[in-house]
C-alpha cells in the first residue's frame, strides 16, 4: 500500500490518454463482470461544462490509479459517472468519492447521485460506507434490474464569507 501514502486527485482532460485508458479499462472490467457490452456513452463535452468535472487520482510516481466524473443531472443534483479504480489500487474508492463530493459541493450541488452496475461492488461499498442511501433506479436506466442507485445530500459550501471589519 505504499502507493497510497501520497495521492493526488485533480481535474484532467477527459480526452487525455490516461483518462481514455482508465475509461476503456472500466468498460472491459464491466463487460467481464456482466458478460455484456458495458459501453455507456457519455460525451466528453458533458464533462467540460462549468458545473462538471473529470478527475484522475495519481500516486506519487504519477501513475493513474482511478478516475471519476461529476456532471449536472438537474440544477441541484449532480451525478457521478465513469467511476473506476484500477484493481491493484482497490481501497481508493472512498477517497476518490469524497473528492468528487467536495467538487460537487463547491459547484453548488445539493445532492450527489451514483448509479452502479450490480457487478461494481467496490463502488457500492464505497457509497454505503460514505453515507449514501439506496434509491429506486431511474426508469430510463440503460440496464434496468442491473443498476443500483445511491444518493447523498451534500452540505452546501459557502461561496463567500463576510468578515467583519476590525478597528
UniProtKB/TrEMBL annotation:
<dbReference type="InterPro" id="IPR000182">
    <property type="entry name" value="GNAT_dom"/>
</dbReference>
<dbReference type="InterPro" id="IPR016181">
    <property type="entry name" value="Acyl_CoA_acyltransferase"/>
</dbReference>
<feature type="domain" description="N-acetyltransferase">
    <location>
        <begin position="7"/>
        <end position="155"/>
    </location>
</feature>
<protein>
    <submittedName>
        <fullName>GNAT family N-acetyltransferase</fullName>
    </submittedName>
</protein>
<dbReference type="Pfam" id="PF00583">
    <property type="entry name" value="Acetyltransf_1"/>
</dbReference>
